[in-house]
Amino acid sequence: MPDLRRAGQYLTRWTCDLGQAGGALEERRLWDRMPVDFPDVDQRFQTLPYRHGFVAGRDPEHPGDPRYATGIWFNTLAHVDHQTGEVDTYYVGDDAAVQEPVYVRKSDQSPEGDGYLLTVVNRFPEARGEMLVFDALRLSEGPVATVRVPLFLRPVTHSNWVSESQLRRASGS
């Protein structure tokens, strides 16, 4: 295992200016409140300017139950408003871990951020999982829906939401 104090993942923006001779790289930490990973945005804004970003993080004020909080794990979801700099969070508890959050817009016409954030949460003492659904712009209010799964869900990462209409277009049906 790497030294986790030195291997922190912080929300950082790298801007490459290929128009300058030799190129230029600017690194700017956007939020250093906690180590984070698994960022997501509304897929319509990939590679474009966007306002709303979502990440899983590990809240340093809640170190977690040492029986479960080992290795690389996350206990918090965060919505970062890149326009205002405000961050809204939801903490899942000392005995739980969140997996990669996925942003799902309400419709193809929804404005950016008008959607849901989905994540799987592992509840260690009960050896079970949950799928939590949040209003993406109101994480601190807690989930709007919880699907309890009567078994422990292995970590699953790197997901994207694909609508039925996108699947139909891609398959030609």
Radius of gyration, taken over Cα atoms and rounded to an integer in Å:
17 Å
Number of domains: 1
- Considering DSSP H and I runs of 4 or more, what fraction of the residues is helical? under 10%
Helix count, DSSP H or I runs of 4 or more residues: 1
Beta-strand residue fraction: 35-45%
What is the number of strand segments? 11
Q: What form results from the Cα inertia axes?
A: globular
Could you report the average pLDDT, rounded to the nearest whole number? 87
The main sheet comes to: 5 strands, antiparallel
End-to-end CA span: 47 Å
Counting helices, strands and paired strands, the structural category is mainly beta
Order of helices and strands: EEEEEEEEEEEH
Unreliable residue runs: none
Overview of the molecule:
With 173 residues, this protein is mainly β. It has one domain. It contains one helix and eleven strands. The strands form three sheets. Strands 7, 8, 9, 10 and 11 form a five-stranded antiparallel β-sheet that branches. It has a four-stranded antiparallel β-sheet with strand order 3-4-5-6, with no helix packed on it. The protein has a two-stranded antiparallel sheet with strand order 1-2. A hairpin with a 6-residue loop joins strand 1 (11-17) and strand 2 (24-31). The radius of gyration is 17 Å and the shape is globular.
Question: What is the structure about, briefly put?
Answer:
The chain has 173 residues and is mainly β. It has one helix at 164-171; strands spanning 11-17, 24-31, 36-40, 52-57, 76-81, 87-91, 96-98, 102-105, 115-123, 128-135, 145-149.
